[in-house]
Design brief:
Length: 338
């Protein structure tokens, strides 16, 4: 309970002070000396939890540790917990990143309706919402983010309030869908907590809920993490989505991220190139990549459910195998990179 309010360092010091005070009757002098030193440390301003060059802010919240860093080239990144992956990135001069946040930009031409209203589950610093609003001007975006401190820091350091027609909702993504009557043309799910997708956002019941909140002809897009050479989690999620949607496309866009797209109206495979011809000019460069590697996933015979969805086990096994084989975290960006 103390960590969100006073931080990890002062919480540990407070616990140490309590132990020292309890020890006073038995060890008067040492306990009093220790208590005095701890009080001095409590009064001093706490140092950074992670000594990272360019750190703009860091916070411990009810949900996680958050760090915002300005990199030497001027790019601002938001990281959670262990900081292995960037959760959001921001450049003042462009909405494109070359990362996983650009992947959903190829989806709108695949829909059977014009894009007007979008929901982003896992809004974080607003990178996906910014890209969609930039490349498809005039759309309305609802961004659901569980942690209010993430939104606060995104407003302060990542230009969140400058994204046109973005409405941020503080809630769990599934809980929001269970309590709203709103419908969308496109729902993007990018709700990682460090390396993991919350299991309850990867089940047949959740995908049924997504489908129920789509307008006719709409679709969903999921950013699913993988490691090179192991796409078991992607296959499990894509197969589960396919058990609820008429057609599911998978695009292995990046070495560590794939895009899973569920369409409420199936499209002929031979029409994919024609559909992608309608991509915005800045995103046209992704068309040949999609055509070269995207494929249609089949429904799973054993879909993930609320009762059984071992997404963490699948993720851990893949990561450990990759590390054991000497794998490196060397992502290759999409050609939309600035």
């Amino acid at each position: 309970m103390l960590i969100p309010g006073v931080g990890t360092q002062r919480t540990l010091l407070s616990a140490a002070l309590l132990v020292a005070l309890v020890s006073v009757p038995l060890l008067v002098r040492p306990a009093l000396i220790a208590s005095a030193l701890i009080i001095v440390l409590l009064v001093l301003p706490p140092g950074l939890v992670k000594e990272t060059q360019g750190t703009l802010a860091e916070r411990n919240t009810t949900y996680q540790y958050i760090q915002v860093v300005r990199e030497p080239g001027g790019r601002i990144v938001m990281r959670f917990d262990d900081g292995i992956a960037d959760q959001s990135v921001y450049r003042a001069d462009t909405a494109l990143t070359g990362g996983e946040w650009d992947m959903p930009l190829v989806v709108p031409p695949l829909l059977a309706r014009r894009l007007h209203r979008v929901l982003v589950i896992g809004n974080a610093g607003g990178t996906t919402a910014r890209a969609l609003a930039s490349e498809y001007p005039g759309i309305d975006v609802d961004g659901v983010e569980l942690d209010p401190v993430v939104t606060e820091l995104a407003r302060q350091y990542m230009g969140l309030d400058a994204i046109p027609n973005l409405h941020v909702i503080t809630a769990d993504g599934r809980e929001y869908l269970e309590t709203t009557a709103q419908h969308y043309d496109l729902i993007v799910v990018d709700a990682y907590r460090t390396e993991y997708i919350p299991f309850y956002l990867a089940t047949r019941e959740f995908f049924s809920l997504l489908h129920a909140h789509l307008n006719a002809g709409g679709g969903v897009a999921l950013n699913v993490e993988r490691v090179p050479g192991n796409d078991q989690l992607v296959q499990a999620i894509a197969g589960t989505v396919a058990s609820e949607f008429p057609q599911v496309w998978v695009w292995p866009a990046l070495r560590f991220n794939e895009l899973v797209v569920g369409l409420s109206d199936a499209i002929p495979k031979l029409s994919l190139a024609q559909r992608l011809a309608a991509l915005p000019d800045e995103v046209q460069i992704l068309k040949p990549l999609v055509l070269a590697s995207a494929y249609v996933a089949q429904p799973s015979l054993d879909p993930l459910t609320d009762d059984r969805a071992p997404v963490e086990w699948l993720t851990d096994r893949a990561i450990l195998a990759y590390i054991a084989a000497g794998g490196r975290l060397d992502e290759r960006l999409l050609p939309t990179a600035p």
